[in-house]
Amino acid sequence: MKILVTGTAGFIGSFVVQQLLDRGDEVIGIDNINDYYDINLKLGRLSKAGINAEALTWYKFIQSDKYPNYRFIRMNLEDKQAIQMLFANEKFDRVCHLAAQAGVRYSIENPDAYVKSNIEGFLNILEACRWNKIQHLVYASSSSVYGLNSKVPFSEQDSIAHPVSLYAATKKSNELMAHSYSDLYNLPTTGLRFFTVYGPWGRPDMSPFLFADAILNNRPIKVFNNGDMLRDFTYIDDITEGVVRCIDKVAEPSNTWNAESPDPSSSSSPYRVFNIGNSTPIKLMDFILSIETACGKVAIKNYLPMQPGDVYQTNADTQALETHVNYKPSTSLLKGITDTVAWFKDYYAL
Question: 184 with 269: CB under 8 angstroms?
């Protein structure tokens, strides 16, 4: 298959590209490589797949020097004309849309960036899929959409009417926009609500990276809500496998969907939404302990109150996805954290 993957300089995107290439798919990757966090980390992810950072320029294809079936082009999702031309010229079979402005707290500081990337950019992807007869669009949603919900585990059948950050609101909007295109234009779409993902090459604004960095460099770590939080941490290899399996299985209308009692995660149209996570929440203090163990050092802890936009607990009900694609994470926290910290030490020469 010929597959477009957006956000390929990102954490999850880079791993999805690698798995698709390894199995023989033709892949086109796009990313704007913005400076939300360290650009060198993004360029390093690209270089893993043979993309020469020194050759990067806007709107110019770079051929991988490791994979003949991989090309990368730097562009913005908001550039409607460029997106339309890319789709028209390349004739993709399927699209995996992972690019977005990420981060809950940053959405409070810079809301415009989220509207441009996550709303305008997503609309451009939907329009391009519509006009170019894409077989299947898989896109990134987020566990943040559950907002004020307190019933756990979070289920795709639950209401998501109360987001607590603009980031979460844009991801909820993506799901609504995708459904309208599935219904109006018979475009198969699958949304994936990612729960906390960690692993080598992870984002530096996420807790595993922040904790390891602080512990290894003898700085205090910030422990929000005084450590009383739970997160559904999922290792990157498990997430990647789930994403690729979803790309392969095209969304179809539900045979059991009932308009009088509608299931929010399915439809009479080719539309699905799934949680993708570990389904076993971990106490924040236990997670910190695992990182301390891998680092061989005890953290200096600075206990703080809950931050605006954060939620107390994330816990995924993943039964629907397990049934849909026979997907279930298998990496233990011990192995995942050990591998992550080992990569961190090697990458930063610590």
Answer: no
27 close to 98: Cβ distance less than 8 angstroms? no
Residue with tokens 């995942």: 336
pLDDT at residue 309 greater than cutoff 70 = no
Q: Are the beta carbons of 113 and 101 closer than 8 angstroms?
A: yes
Calpha distance 32→101 (Å, rounded):
11
Q: Which residues are catalytically annotated?
A: 167
For the chain, what's the residue count?
350
Q: What is the pLDDT of residue 104?
A: 74
Query: Region 86-96: what's the mean pLDDT?
Result: 98
| Percent of the chain scoring above 70 in pLDDT | 100
302: which strand partners? 222
Task: Determine how β-strand 230-231 pairs with β-strand 282-283.
Answer: antiparallel
Q: Tell me whether strands 230-231 and 189-194 are parallel, antiparallel or unpaired.
A: unpaired
Cα–Cα distance for residue pair 88/72, rounded to 1 Å: 16
**Greatest pairwise CA separation for the chain in angstroms:** 59
**Cis peptide, bond prior to residue 68, ω within 30 of zero:** no
Contact (Cβ atoms closer than 8 angstroms) between residue 190 and residue 320 = no
What is the per-residue pLDDT for 216? 93
Burial classification of residue 264, based on how many CB atoms lie within 10 Å of its CB (0-12 exposed, 13-18 middle, 19 or more buried): middle
Distance CA 316, CA 330 (A): 15
Whether the Cβ atoms of residue 51 and residue 64 lie closer than 8 Å to each other = yes
CB atoms under 10 Å from CB of 226, counted, come to 13
Of the candidates 30, 10, 11, the residue with the CA atom closest to the CA atom of residue 200: 11
Q: Contact 321/251 with Cβ under 8 angstroms?
A: no
